[in-house]
Amino acid sequence: MGTRTSPLALVQARGVAARLEELAGVRVEVVGIQTAGDRHRGYLGELGGKGAFMREIDRALLAGRVDIAVHCLKDVPGDVPRPEGLVFAAYVERDDTADVMLFPMEGEVQCLADLRPGARVGTSAVRRRAQLGQIRSDLRVEYLRGNVNSRLGRLDSGEGFDAIVLARASLARLGIERAGEVLDIVPAVGAGVLAVDCRRADSHIVELVRLVDHRDTRRCVSAERAMLHGLQGHCNSPIAGHARVERDGQLSLSGMVFARDGSVFVHSHELSPPDKGGDLGAYVASDLLRKGARDLIDGIPH
């Protein structure tokens, strides 16, 4: 099983490996593969976006050096096709999708409302930046990359950040217990979902991996990814989207596209039968485009 070498990626992969070992009675060896995205410390757009987290792993999978790979689905670009011959055979049951704001351990600030005007908030996601701009336009939201522990280290070291925003699922997977404020914002497409990739031609491995596939998560992913593809979204696109199976069995999808400062946004919310996720995502994308999403994604001023 190939995965990135960050502590979070390794923990996630080992969790999926343990589940496969339990269900299929096989032994899974986790292999860390350092990617260009992990080596590069600057802006991801300089490497072509979040695809930089996947290219080396894709090559290892296509070359047969690994049999399967685990990715955070939110890091899979929506504007470029996946390599020919690879297939996501499983989407592991979705974890928490919430974003949480964290504050320095040694400090009096304990919530978003406590932050002074002009406070520096670190995040690498334009989606978070845009929605924070809606909530507190007086904050200075600045680019911050790195693994979870390094970001927390920078926050606590007094390097100038008054708060940072992380995925709550990341903290839970790493066993980090830390007080923070859950933000009322729409998550990223694919948030909280681990996707298991393999070669389509390896039918026996495809069948094995499908043992960890979660039906409702796959339905939600189908809708969210179809929306992202329809919008031609990439890592620098201020797009948010979240699908869920409602109590009556219908599939719902909320999609939003923002100006980068959050001053303007468009929104769409629709329902469909649970097996029509692709159609639902395509419809929501077209509705957002009718409302002006293309200009917002391309950064054209309103």
From TrEMBL:
InterPro entries: HemC, Porphobilin_deaminase_cofac_BS, Porphobilin_deaminase_N, Porphobilinogen_deaminase_C, Porphobilinogen_deaminase_C_sf. Keywords: Porphyrin biosynthesis, Transferase. It comes from the Bacteria. GO terms for molecular function: hydroxymethylbilane synthase activity. It is an enzyme of class 2 (transferase). Residues 219-289 form the Porphobilinogen deaminase C-terminal domain. One of its GO terms (biological process) is heme biosynthetic process. Pathway: Porphyrin-containing compound metabolism; protoporphyrin-IX biosynthesis; coproporphyrinogen-III from 5-aminolevulinate: step 2/4. SUPFAM superfamilies: Periplasmic binding protein-like II (SSF53850), Porphobilinogen deaminase (hydroxymethylbilane synthase), C-terminal domain (SSF54782). Residues 2-206 form the Porphobilinogen deaminase N-terminal domain. GO terms for cellular component: cytoplasm. The keyword Transferase applies. The keyword Transferase applies. Its EC number is 2.5.1.61. Its cofactor is dipyrromethane. It catalyses: 4 porphobilinogen + H2O = hydroxymethylbilane + 4 NH4(+). Belongs to the HMBS family. Tetrapolymerization of the monopyrrole PBG into the hydroxymethylbilane pre-uroporphyrinogen in several discrete steps. This is Hydroxymethylbilane synthase. It comes from Actinomadura soli. The gene is hemC.
